[in-house]
Specification:
The complex is a heterodimer of chains A (316) and B (301). With 316 residues, chain A is an all-alpha fold. Helices cover 69% and strands 3% of the residues of chain A. Chain A has a domain of 213 residues. The longest helix of chain A is centred in the C-terminal third of the chain and has 27 residues. With 301 residues, chain B is mainly alpha-helical. Classes of the chains: A mainly alpha (316), B mainly alpha (301). The interface between A and B is large, with 43 and 47 residues.
């Protein structure tokens, strides 16, 4: 990570940390939504941005995580933050099962299949699968989380919980980006044939990206369940997937700061212009077309690491 | 048996509508290798335009029941076809040389735009077609009471499909479309104006989709601005079942999907009706990505 980016993050974190003391509860709650969408978009960015897999069913993994957390909380009275890793694992396991047979499909077909998967999950939730999901009404009465004996209740409390998780995610994903795994993903996105030829097991890496992204979406789902205390299938509709997809594409797919900026634009801006709320999706659609024509790579595009000649060790 | 036959005829009617929409997907895919995500919304525009023209022009009174509907259908098809051509110019042509996936995102954007434009104009509520446009009688077919409208839908879709098939197979322009689908570069060298072929495909496909929208409005009497998305997904599934890029395949796939879905809803569960289509789609893509008669879509690396 270069210095300028680090400084930008520090500045951003400082501004954000001051926000709950300056803003009223409503705007803090808006920032909480932005945080949750940023997490979802970061999880999708791993799949869509880094691995280049067109997944438009991220809401399905989000839903699996949220429902697992909600069921654990309401039926077994597991504290919701303990349910967080479990819901991540559940979403990951689900992703591994559904992605394995379809991961080799070409871009736009993968897109269709993931849309179909998301819809099947939503229909299954509405139909009260196994008597666990509560049908169209969903699940209510999810317990509030508590951290070190402090009960998290107000938007301000959630603000710190959610954005701490965002900060952790950003840190981990930056590390991941520079790891062997992250570089392999970028390689296979840019040129799958060359990657395969250089010994990158493309199927395995694609699958790993999918599973890891799903795990993160699942954990975000449990945070969402904890925040709302009530969840229902309509929160996990196709449009949710579209919105997250949009954040990644507009922000700059493959670029972590880009995705965060995207979350602010897509989720935060419509709140600022609430008078035009009904026209929001219209504008999004238009922006998608215009962006693809004039700036395909997004607002803050992914910048590959460049090496200077002096960085390369000379053979002695 | 009675119930089975009723479900079967209903499935054929719905399947015919899917097939009409699927033709648009398959023709565009054949020439541009692009999934036109906005196609389902063009179908919705057909339904809404049909309703608006029906209530504002009073064609029924002037031209009689059959003549009125016929003129209405031509107007709707023309307008939706024009919309398709504009869509191609605005959202797809600038991206002809870009990576395929940019065009897909642009198509999604176009879909969202069209759908929400419709919502802003008409509102989010269900809209109702005026009643009594075509007589709501049931006809006795070999001892089975079948609603007249159902027969009309099946006949109209079959006639349109046959006409399109003959057009593409037998005429000179149809040959140009097929040539452009096989190899655009070679087609250009043979003196075919590929841009015009693409515009033509974007005229015919949406025109058929718009006609399907009108049929749905007349058949069910109720339309909604989001219905294009579910019909579009079903029709796309139909196109995949038949093998995308393949015109007879889309017809077979559409009818097949309609029947499977109607029987599934009748005998398995109505609540899972929409899931059936998606499941069929996923299974086909996994097991036989080429469809029943079509092109290869999975990458073998």
């Amino acid at each position: 990570m270069n210095r300028r980016l680090l400084a930008a993050y520090a500045l951003f974190a400082a501004a954000l940390a001051a926000a709950p003391f300056l803003l009223d509860a409503y705007w803090v709650d808006v920032l909480n939504s932005v945080g949750l969408y940023a997490l979802l978009a970061l999880s999708l960015n791993l799949i869509l941005g880094d691995a280049g897999l067109f997944n438009m069913g991220q809401a399905a993994f989000y839903a699996v995580g949220a429902y697992v957390a909600a069921i654990l909380s309401t039926r077994l009275h597991v504290p919701i933050l303990w349910a967080l890793p479990v819901s991540g694992l559940a979403a990951a396991a689900f992703a591994a099962v559904v992605a394995r047979p379809v991961i080799h499909l070409r871009g736009d077909y993968l897109l269709i299949v993931t849309i179909g998967m998301g819809e099947i999950v939503r229909i299954a939730l509405v139909n009260d699968v196994g008597g666990l999901t509560g049908g169209a009404n969903g699940i209510f009465g999810i317990a509030r989380p508590s951290v070190l004996g402090h009960r998290i209740r107000t938007p301000q409390d959630f603000f710190f919980l959610i954005w701490a998780f965002v900060a952790l995610t950003v840190f981990l994903f930056h590390r991941l980006e520079q790891s062997r795994f992250g570089r392999a993903l970028n390689y296979l996105r840019e040129d799958p044939v060359a990657a395969e030829g250089s010994g990158v097991n493309t199927t395995r890496y694609k699958l790993m990206a999918f599973v890891l992204g799903a795990a993160w979406a699942g954990m975000t789902g449990s945070l969402y369940a904890a925040k709302m205390t009530i969840i229902s299938p309509e929160s996990f509709s196709f449009w949710e997937s579209v919105l997250v997809f949009l954040i990644v594409i507009l922000g700059g797919s493959g670029s972590i700061p880009g995705v965060i900026v995207g979350a602010f634009l897509v989720v935060g801006l419509p709140e600022v212009f609430r008078g035009f709320a009904t026209a929001r999706m219209l504008v999004f659609g238009l922006v998608m077309m215009v962006m693809m024509i004039f700036r395909t790579q997004g607002l803050l595009p992914f910048r590959p690491v460049r090496f200077k000649e002096s960085d390369v060790p000379r053979p002695t | 048996m009675e119930q089975f036959l009723q479900q079967l005829t209903n499935g054929l009617a719905v399947g015919g509508i899917y097939a009409l929409i699927a033709l648009g997907y398959t023709m565009v895919y054949g020439v541009l290798k692009l999934i036109n995500f906005a196609h389902g919304d063009l179908f919705t525009y057909g339904a809404y335009l049909g309703m608006t023209l029906l209530t504002s022009l009073l064609l029924q009174g002037r031209l009689g029941a059959v003549g009125g509907v016929l003129v209405l259908a031509l107007m709707v098809m023309g307008l939706v076809g024009l919309l398709g051509v504009i869509l191609e110019r605005a959202a797809y042509r600038p991206l002809r040389e870009s990576p395929r996936l940019s065009a897909v995102v642009s198509a999604l954007g176009a879909s969202i735009f069209l759908q929400n434009a419709l919502m802003l104009i008409y509102g989010a509520r269900f809209q109702v077609y005026p009643e009594g446009i075509l007589p709501q009688r049931a006809v006795n077919v070999l001892g089975l009471q079948v609603p007249l409208m159902r027969i009309v839908v099946v006949l109209v879709t079959l006639v349109m499909m046959a006409a399109l098939y003959l057009f593409v197979q037998k005429t000179k322009i149809g040959t140009a479309i097929r040539a452009a689908a096989i190899d655009q570069g070679a087609a250009r060298l043979m003196g075919i104006d590929v841009n015009r072929v693409i515009s033509l495909v974007f005229l015919i496909g949406p025109a058929l989709g718009g006609a399907a929208g009108l049929l749905v409005g007349l058949y069910y009497g109720q339309i909604n601005f989001t219905m294009g998305w579910i019909y579009g997904m079903k029709a796309f599934t139909a196109a995949i079942i038949g093998g995308i890029g393949n015109i007879p395949g889309a017809m077979v796939g559409g009818l097949l999907l309609g029947v499977v879905e109607a029987l599934g809803a009748g005998y398995v569960s109505v609540a899972w009706k929409d899931a059936i289509a998606f499941l069929v789609l996923i299974l086909i893509l996994i097991v036989r990505p080429t469809g029943l008669l079509g092109e290869r879509v999975a990458e073998k690396v």
